[in-house]
Design goal:
single chain; six-stranded parallel beta sheet; 8 helices; about 25% strand
Length: about 240
């Protein structure tokens, strides 16, 4: 790999940006794709760039054919992160599950008796107020945010920061009625309909979950569904 390509990869990694190395498996030529732009020895068509975006979204290396060439796409995504607002019982099940799924987890709760290493040994602990903790975390496109306290004073400051970010998933615990009330308060705080539509509430896939472990399963399943959307089928020409 050329020195300039390595430098691009290191810079993108430091900035938590996805990187894709594209290799022509026959000729050996390579290109590095960062921030939607290609650099290197290969000319990449819009169709190939679309395949690259799909590979980034699916977080999966793949081989494609384009113009009679076989191209290997190696995806280097930044680590997934999960911010959990509320050191509650659901969080105690969700956190180890998320760690197993490859997330770096931060539990945010200013209530010191709840947010402890004894209860969450696999997570970073923040006892800052949720908006301050979220601002320090700076959620990006590889970050999920779940609000679980059921307390507007704690959940909504964190949700407000998440809605201004590129977080790929935002979810909040509560019934349909409490979610509607939450959206109303956030609307009064200045958030628009498109922004509020990003909140998954009630949180999790509708699998009739009742116990904290079941709700945790529903949350992680919905996060996964959003992170890996189905590949769009190409429309056939008329």
């Amino acid at each position: 790999m050329k020195q300039d390509a390595l430098q691009r990869i290191l810079a993108a990694t430091a900035a938590r940006q996805p990187v894709v190395t594209v290799t022509d498996l026959d000729a050996g030529a390579q290109a590095i794709v960062t921030a939607g732009a290609a650099h290197g020895d290969l000319t990449l068509t819009p169709d190939v760039m679309a395949e690259i975006e799909t590979a980034i979204g699916r977080d999966r290396c793949t081989t494609i054919e384009a113009g009679g060439r076989k191209l290997f796409l190696q995806v280097l995504n930044p680590p997934k992160r999960l911010a959990v607002i509320g050191a509650v019982h659901i969080a105690q099940t969700l956190v180890p599950m998320a760690v197993m799924a490859g997330y770096d987890v931060t539990v945010i709760d200013p209530r010191g008796a709840w947010a402890t290493k004894e209860r969450f040994p696999d997570a970073e602990i923040s006892r800052e107020w949720p908006d301050k903790a979220m601002e320090a975390m700076a959620p990006d496109h590889r970050t999920a945010v779940v609000a679980l306290t059921h307390d507007p004073k704690l959940d909504e400051p964190g949700l407000g920061v998440a809605l201004k970010s590129q977080a790929f998933y935002i979810g909040a615990l509560g019934s349909n009625a409490s979610n509607a009330a939450r959206l109303g308060r956030l609307k009064q705080a200045g958030f628009g309909e498109d922004e509020l539509a990003r909140i998954h509430g009630p949180i999790g896939l509708d699998i009739h979950a009742e116990s904290p472990p079941e709700i945790a399963v529903a949350i992680l399943a919905q996060m996964t569904q959003v992170l890996h959307p189905p590949k769009k089928k190409k429309e056939k020409a008329a």
